[in-house]
Amino acid sequence: MFYDKLDRYTPYALAALRIAAALIFIPHGLQKLFGFPAPPASGLPPVLSLFGIGAILELVGGLFILLGLFTRPVAFILAGEMAVAYWMFHAPRGLYPVLNGGDAAILYCFVFLLLVFTGPGALSVDGARSAGGHRPSWAR
C-alpha cells in the first residue's frame, strides 16, 4: 500500500521537522542574548533574568535539538519552557492564540513534546551514538 512506502521515510521526515524547528527556534535565543539579527524591542534582558535564562535555553537547547544530541531530555525542557512562556506571557493577553501572539509557543511546545516521545529521527548524534543499541531504527 502507498502508506507502507511512506513509512520508510518517517525517520527522515522527523529529522526534517527537528532541524527546521531548531533553525527557527535558535534565533529567538540569539536575539535576546546578542541582539542578532535585531535587538528585542524591550532591549537585551539581563542574563540571569527569566528572559535571559529562556534565551540560554533557546540558544543552547536549540543547538542540541539541531544536532539531535540528548534530544529527548532537551526537548522535554524546551517543551516545558514553551508551555510556561505561553501561560505566563501570551494567555493573559487573551484567549485566542492568533490574537495573543502565542501560536508559535504552542507549536514549539508540541513539536518538542513529539520529540520527547519519538526521539530525533535520522541524521542525529543520538542515532550515531546508539548505533547497535536497543532502540528501533525509527526512534533514532
Automatic annotation (TrEMBL):
It is a multi-pass membrane protein. GO terms for cellular component: plasma membrane. It comes from the Bacteria. The chain crosses the membrane at residues 12-30, 50-67, 74-92, 104-125. Keywords: Cell membrane, Membrane, Transmembrane, Transmembrane helix. It is found in: Cell membrane. It holds the Pfam family DoxX. Belongs to the DoxX family. This is DoxX family protein. It comes from Salinarimonas soli. The lineage of its organism: Bacteria, Pseudomonadati, Pseudomonadota, Alphaproteobacteria, Hyphomicrobiales.
